[in-house]
C-alpha cells in the first residue's frame, strides 16, 4: 500500500513530562485510521503534531514524500476538523467555507465551485446563507467538516468531532463521515475515545496508552485477538470477563486452571507455539458466553446466580456470579430472567483470550 503519512521515532515532551515516546506509525493512502484511547493517552497530541500545531521534541513526520516536521500547518496539505466547531459567528456558512480560500488568493470562480461541491457532498446546500446561530449542532459540525473539505486536501484530520453531539446525532453523522470517506477516498485520521466510533469507522485502529501505540490492527483483529489485557478491557462493553489462574501443559496438552475451573485449550490459537506454563488471565467476552439450553452444548459449563439484569431491547445483559467470579453474559433481548435466578452458562475456549499475568501480553 502506498504510504500517505509516516511518523518516525516521534517524541514530544513538556518539561520532564514525556507525552509521546518514540512513536512510529505508517498510514496508507486513502486509509481511515482511528486513534483510540482514554483521556491523556496522547491521541490528540499526536494528531496536533501531524497537523503542525505542536513542535515535536524528536523524530520526523512525512506527508507523502515530503518531510513536514517543521513546516507550517498551512503548507502541509491537510484539512482539520476540531471538537469545537470554531465557526465565525458573524459569517454565513458560505462565508465560513470560503474564508480560508479567499485568504489563499484563489480565483472567485474556483472558490464558488469548491464551496458548492462541498455543500452538495455534505447536503448543506440550503444552509449556505445561514449564520451558525441559526444551525443545529449537527448542521454546525457539517459546516465545520465542509470548511476542511473545500481545501481539497489529501489528508483530513478529525479531533473528536462528534463528542459535543447527542447520541442519535452522533450515530447519524458517523454514517455520513463513513460515506464521505467512501466518496472521497482521502486519507483520514480520526481521534476519539468512543470505541463504537472507532469500530464502525476505521480501516485500522491504533489503541494508545501513555504516549505509545499498544496495538495497530483492523477492528476485527483488535476485538478478537487483543494484544494485551488492557486492549481487551478497553474494547467491548461490558468489558471482557476474566479468570485469574495458571496456564498448564501436561504431555503437550494445554489447559487453564484456577482451582475451581479447569479449561482444556485444545482448540485455542496461541500466539507462539509451545508457550511456557505461567500464571495467566483467562478472558472471555460476554457475547461469547452462552446461557440456558444453549449452554448445555458448550465445552465448558457452570451454574450461575443472576445478580443484575439490564434489558436493552435488542439484547439483555445479565451480571451473574459463578465460581465466586462476577461475570457479564449477553443474552437474547427477550430472555426471561430476573434477579436471584440460577441459570446455566457456558463458553467455547477457542473464543477466549489468554494473557500473561506478568506482563499482561496475549499468550
From TrEMBL:
Residues 5-235 form the ABC transporter domain. Coiled coil: none annotated. InterPro entries: AAA+_ATPase (IPR003593), ABC_transporter-like_ATP-bd (IPR003439), ABC_transporter-like_CS (IPR017871), ABC_transpr_MalK-like (IPR015855), ABC_transpr_MalK/UgpC-like (IPR047641), Mo/tungstate-bd_C_term_dom (IPR008995), NA-bd_OB-fold (IPR012340), OB_MalK-like (IPR040582). Keywords: ATP-binding, Nucleotide-binding, Transport. The keyword Membrane does not apply. PROSITE patterns: ABC_TRANSPORTER_1, ABC_TRANSPORTER_2. Belongs to the ABC transporter superfamily. This is ABC transporter ATP-binding protein. It comes from Roseibium porphyridii.
Amino acid at each position: 500500500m502506498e504510504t500517505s503519512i509516516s511518523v518516525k521515532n516521534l517524541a514530544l515532551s513538556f518539561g520532564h513530562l514525556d507525552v509521546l515516546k518514540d512513536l512510529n506509525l505508517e498510514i496508507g493512502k486513502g486509509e481511515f485510521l482511528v486513534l483510540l484511547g482514554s483521556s491523556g493517552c496522547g491521541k490528540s497530541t499526536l494528531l496536533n503534531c501531524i497537523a503542525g500545531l505542536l513542535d515535536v521534541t524528536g523524530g520526523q513526520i512525512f506527508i507523502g514524500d515530503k518531510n513536514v516536521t517543521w513546516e507550517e500547518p498551512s503548507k502541509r496539505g491537510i484539512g482539520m476538523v476540531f471538537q469545537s466547531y470554531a465557526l465565525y459567528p458573524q459569517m454565513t456558512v458560505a462565508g465560513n467555507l470560503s474564508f480560508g480560500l479567499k485568504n489563499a488568493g484563489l480565483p472567485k470562480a474556483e472558490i464558488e465551485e469548491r464551496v458548492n461541491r462541498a455543500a452538495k457532498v455534505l447536503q448543506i446546500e440550503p444552509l449556505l446563507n445561514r449564520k451558525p446561530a441559526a444551525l443545529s449542532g449537527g448542521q454546525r459540525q457539517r459546516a465545520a467538516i465542509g470548511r476542511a473539505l473545500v481545501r481539497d486536501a489529501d489528508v483530513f484530520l478529525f479531533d473528536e468531532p462528534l463528542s459535543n453531539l447527542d447520541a442519535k446525532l452522533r450515530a447519524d453523522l458517523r454514517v455520513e463521515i463513513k460515506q464521505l470517506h467512501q466518496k472521497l477516498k482521502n486519507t483520514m485520521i480520526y481521534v476519539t475515545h468512543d470505541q463504537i466510533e472507532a469500530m464502525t469507522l476505521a480501516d485500522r485502529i491504533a489503541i494508545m496508552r501513555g504516549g505509545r501505540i499498544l496495538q495497530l490492527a483492523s477492528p476485527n483483529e483488535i476485538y478478537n485477538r487483543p494484544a494485551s489485557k488492557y486492549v481487551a478491557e478497553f474494547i467491548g462493553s461490558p468489558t471482557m470477563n476474566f479468570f485469574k489462574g495458571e496456564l498448564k501443559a501436561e504431555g503437550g496438552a494445554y489447559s487453564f486452571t484456577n482451582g475451581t475451573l479447569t479449561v482444556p485449550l485444545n482448540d485455542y490459537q496461541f500466539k507462539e507455539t509451545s508457550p511456557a506454563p505461567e500464571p495467566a488471565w483467562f478472558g472471555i467476552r460476554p457475547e461469547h458466553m452462552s446461557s440456558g439450553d444453549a449452554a448445555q452444548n458448550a465445552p465448558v459449563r457452570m451454574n450461575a446466580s443472576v445478580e443484575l439484569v439490564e434489558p436493552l431491547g435488542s439484547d439483555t445483559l445479565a451480571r451473574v456470579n459463578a465460581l465466586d467470579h462476577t461475570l457479564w453474559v449477553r443474552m437474547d433481548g427477550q430472555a426471561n430472567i430476573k434477579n436471584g435466578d440460577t441459570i446455566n452458562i457456558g463458553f467455547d475456549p477457542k473464543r477466549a483470550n489468554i494473557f500473561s499475568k506478568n506482563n499482561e501480553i496475549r499468550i
